[in-house]
Specification:
With 90 residues, the chain is an all-beta fold. It has strands spanning 2-3, 6-10, 32-37, 40-44, 47-49, 61-66, 69-73, 76-78, 81-82, 85-86. It has no helices and 10 strands. The protein starts with a strand and ends with a strand.
Length: 90
């Protein structure tokens, strides 16, 4: 949760497999995997993967921004296929 601040998250690939950020179910008063309130976040070079398991509870929102700013550069968001179409929200 980012509140009343502006944050830049920059990821740089090192040797080996790329880092993939995966949301996990957890109790929280916020509805998003990443939540921004009265602030901003700039995400550079990140890879996000949504689990294919229907049994795992996911956050209501991938990224939730309330009265704030979001910028994503050179990022990848990968989700499971749902029928014939991909089920990825950004």
């Amino acid at each position: 949760m980012i509140e009343n601040a502006w944050v830049r998250l920059q990821f740089e690939q090192a040797e080996g497999a790329p880092l993939a950020l995966v949301p996990k179910s957890a109790e929280s008063k916020y509805d998003g995997f990443i939540t921004v309130v009265n602030g901003g976040v700039e995400i550079v070079g990140a890879a996000f993967t949504m689990p294919a398991s229907e049994r795992q509870a996911m956050p209501k929102w991938f990224i939730q921004v309330i009265d704030g700013d979001l910028a994503m550069w050179h990022c990848r968001v990968q989700g499971a296929l749902n029928g014939a179409a991909a089920a990825t929200k950004v």
